Amino acid sequence: MSQKAASIGVIGGSGFYKFLQTTEASKPETPYGSPSASVRLSDMKGKRVAFIPRHGEHHEFPPHAVPYRANLYALKQLGVERVYGPTAVGSLRSEIRPGDFVVSDQFVNFTNGRKDTYFDGPETAHVGSADPYCPELRALLLEASKDAGVRVHKRGTVVVIQGPRFSSRAESKFFRSQDWDIINMTQYPEVILARELEVCYANISLVTDYDVGVEWDPKIKPVSNDEVMRVFNENLDKLRSLLLKAIELTPEKRSCDCGTAMRNARISA
């Protein structure tokens, strides 16, 4: 697979393989090991797109074991400058319902032990993450959602937990008490690694559940893997359509500041 093979990347679920018209596939080596699976190239809406299934082709990588650094670096090696990262999430708010979509604008990290930087030394850098998600890609996702027939929340704070287990009731109550919106296991460090590579990154979250349930309705049970997959599969076509429209709308040149995220971030001896 040649360099500069694609300018747009998608890191998503293995189910996306089913709608790709693949022209090339390769599993490149990076300084950070192999990515989760082969990188597939596809022509979508006149754009060359590289795709990696976050959890592997057979979902063999649980959230804490995903090779996040290799995934992002492999896309960067191919010339990718923009990445869309769709995910499934749980809701922490009554007004954010299963089947809704959220375009995240902030994250809170509750993971531990993950390889979350490309600067382990001797080179050191401190990247800014006040606004971690690309504003240009977020706007494109919101524009794409207008005709997608979906209910979309324009912003949201995602709290990222270690996984692979779901939250306890006490943990979920704490997260809700902080006015956070949704909960997920993979947004960190994916979003911040993209920033260190000066790659634009945006998340579109599909809400699959109410985390541990909701206090106002005892009929709503705590999240289960079966329920997550059921709601995700029911809404997969909508997610695909939304992403395809966003890809179609993505301009050739960037107009954001993501490409200079590391300016003045490195520390020189």
Explain what this protein looks like in three dimensions.
The protein contains five helices and 15 strands. Helix 2 crosses helix 5. The chain is globular, with a radius of gyration of 18 Å. Strand 3 and strand 4 form a beta hairpin. With 269 residues, the protein is an alpha/beta fold. The protein has a single domain, classed as Rossmann fold. The strands form three sheets. A seven-stranded mixed beta sheet has the order 8-11-12-6-14-7-10, with helices on both faces.
Structural key phrases:
six-stranded mixed sheet, 5 helices, 269 residues, alpha/beta, 22% strand, seven-stranded mixed sheet, 24% helix, Rossmann fold
Order of helices and strands: EEEEHEEEEEHEEHEHEEHE
- Rg over CA atoms, rounded to whole Å, is 18 Å
How much strand content do the residues show? 15-25%
Largest sheet: number of strands, sense, barrel closure: 7 strands, mixed
So, CATH architecture? 3-Layer(aba) Sandwich
Shape: globular
**CATH topology (level 3) name:** Rossmann fold
Number of helices: 5
What's the level 1 CATH class?
A: Alpha Beta
- State the helicity in percent bands: 10-25%
Ends apart, CA distance between termini? 37 Å
Low-confidence stretches: none
Q: Label the structural class.
A: alpha/beta
Mean pLDDT across residues: 89
Q: How would the blueprint of this fold be written?
A:
Layout: E1 8-12, E2 22-26, E3 39-44, E4 47-53, H1 68-77, E5 82-84, E6 87-91, E7 101-102, E8 106-110, E9 124-125, H2 135-145, E10 152-153, E11 157-161, H3 169-177, E12 182-184, H4 187-196, E13 200-202, E14 205-209, H5 225-249, E15 266-267
Parallel strand pairs: 1-4, 1-5, 5-13, 6-14, 7-10, 8-11, 11-12
Antiparallel strand pairs: 2-3, 3-4, 6-12, 7-14, 9-15
